[in-house]
User: Fold FAD-dependent 5-carboxymethylaminomethyl-2-thiouridine(34) oxidoreductase MnmC from Ramlibacter algicola.
Amino acid sequence: MAERVVGSFAQARHVFLEGCGLPQAWAGQRQWRILQAGFGAGLNFLAAWRAWKDDPSRPGLLHFCSIEASPSPADAIVLGAQEDDALLPLARELAAQWWGLLPGVHRLAFEDGRVLLTLCIGDAREQVQQQAFAADSVFLRDTADLPTLKAVTRLCRRGMRLATPDVPDQVRRDLHQCGFVMESRERVGLAGRFDPSWQVREGATQLAPSTAIVIGAGLAGAAAAASLARRDWDVHVLDAATEPAQGASALPAGLLAPHASPDDNLLSRLSRAGVRMTLRESEMRLRAGEDWSRSGALERRADRAAADLGTDGQPWQAARADGLWHAAAAWIKPATLVRAWLATPGVRWTGAARVTSIEAREPGWRVHLADGTQHDATLVVVAAALGSAALLPALQLHAVRGQVSWDLHDGPALTPAPVNGNGHFLPDVPLAGGRAWLSGSTYGRGDLDTQPRHEDQLANLERMRSLLPDVAAQLADRIKRGEAKAWCGVRCASSDRRPVVGELAPGLWVSTAMGSRGLTFAHLAAELLGARLHAEPLPLPVRLVQALDANR
Assistant:
């Protein structure tokens, strides 16, 4: 019988990496997609990540999609990596993101977003069925029943390799039935090649990275540009304004917080996915305390209860006497995030470039500008907020005017943390000129006027009174006298208040209608776009992807 080295780093290297021919197999590839059944303490992921870091011929992106019924605690990840000094710092990085792992799909990012872990929590067969990517390697850590193996097979391409420890004879027979040609290995485990006798269904057509034009330099456009550039696209961002982030993304600071609902509805689940991803982007790209702060937020909303998310949901929401505490919340300056994304290598930006029309060409698309110039590209992404509808008349988009009240202060923070509910209040944000509070926002449907209105300042004061009566009392006179400042912007929303992300024609995509949750949804939409373009693991279950699709 073959030697067994169960649960160790040696097993991860010898059984899984070598069994799948890694790292040699991924040399020179743009990306590599690994599917694993059973995450355990994460040694296989850590071993793959370590091999990627050490390989000068590594792929530009490493995707690791793992299915796990019940995640191990974070300290088990660190403990399992104690035997190897090279693995331990990676384990600590992984453990730092190992929170709030409710059933569903979670996207964790490392190495500036070039190593992506898509963790699918729940029943193995169901979670595999919620994915739609093309696996380059399969790690079968746990034994699996035939229906689950058949679901795994749906994600396999002919010739890809699978590795597993020694498994019962029945599992060997099931793997053979699923189209794998298996072979015992000298030291440990089994390896196999997917080579079924039947015709393998081809996956979705993938565009090879080439030239891309993104229309719009707000949160949605900048996020899309950065995600494409990380996938080797040469990206040109065109915007009608003379500077980036001049629309709704020019908000001085916004609140990033998950949506809570009595039935944990679609918006709540989408918001958690987006919040996790934006928090990670902020950690990697922004200056803590200056551009953003993971401050948490207290939700006060007497008219609505929140679903019980259990122990694993505590980082998302915890009931307190004074409201619902969201530990996974932050204030962020949107314009700084836009500029950070536009600074991604491979992205260039041109302002004062108003696009008037998009024309299909062979191959690709031609973009026409108001000054008569033209730009050709293989891929076009329309992310121009309300301007998207002028370029894509089939879209049903709506204007939503928002006015935020704010002012500088030189005393202590007016509240310990941001507060939201019917409106929001940010107590202490560093802005040009000093520290500031911000409160709002109004919600004017169909209103395109961006001039400040005194009546909207008073409306924000009323919202503040319902959230924070004592704070409102301190600020009321200054607001009533018209001495507080105002910021106005027009947001873009869809009829169902969900973003619009998807392909409208081959090579023509849209990412818009972020509404008042641009910070929540922009990066999620961008990564969804990148995943669908390149047959990568999806950052959301298929059902939620369909809820955002432009053709829904």
The first strand starts at residue 31 and ends at 37. Confidence is low (pLDDT under 50) at residues 1-7.
